[in-house]
Structures are given as C-alpha cells and as structure tokens.
C-alpha cells in the first residue's frame, strides 16, 4: 500500500495525486526490473523509526490543556532537540521538549489523531543497509 499525504480528509489535491502516481510507477518499475533478472547493488538509506506516540498535556479530567507550539506546527520530520518549544498552554506558558536525544516528530497535530490521544509521533533517524538483490535462478 501507499499512503500519500498529509492532506485534509475528503480533499483531492492534484500535486499529491501526482506524487502518488510517481511513487507507484517507481514501485512497478522496480518489480519489472527485478523480474527481468536485474541486480540491485547494496545501498544504505536513512529512515525514521517510530519511538512512541506523544499525547497532549491534559488535566485530571482528561481535557487537553495545551496546544502544539507554533514553532513545531508544520515541522514534520524536522529535528526536535531538548529545550525546543513543544506545547503552548492556553495561558501562554511554553512547555519545552525534554529528551536526552534529538527526535523527529511527525503526524504533528493531525486532526484524525485527536481522539486517539496523539499530539505527534516521536521518531528517530536510523540508517538501514540492504544487501545486493537479484532474482534467484531456482
């Protein structure tokens, strides 16, 4: 499956659909080249691995008491370091990120995740290495 976004629910955007067409075409090209016996050399790629889902700050009644800080909004996949602004309370208090390593938040302030008690997902950037790949003769 391919999920392309973010975009609001029920909205069809030409630029996002074009991106989806391109990635599906690349996937199909890979399958064809693989099936033709082409060898793919080893490679290394950076990926983002999910660490944990982070909820909004809440009061004892479970109500959200702070929103995503404006400096974090729309910064998916960007580094978040210890002390960077994370949340903003309704009375203007900044709640900073407190962590022992740089993380890369994503799905920041996504409306679909409010009911799941998820303000964003913390990810870490890691490198994966793939061995050479070729269709087996057997």
From TrEMBL:
Domain AstE/AspA barrel-sandwich hybrid: 44-125
InterPro entries: AspA/AstE_fam, Aste_AspA_hybrid_dom
Keywords assigned: Hydrolase, Metal-binding, Zinc
Pfam families, alphabetized: AstE_AspA_hybrid (PF04952)
Keyword Hydrolase: yes
Record-level GO cellular component terms: cytosol
One GO molecular-function entry: metal ion binding
UniProt cross-references to PANTHER family, sorted A to Z: ASPARTOACYLASE
Record's protein name: ACY2 Aspartoacylase
Record organism: Notiomystis cincta
Organism ancestry: Eukaryota, Metazoa, Chordata, Craniata, Vertebrata
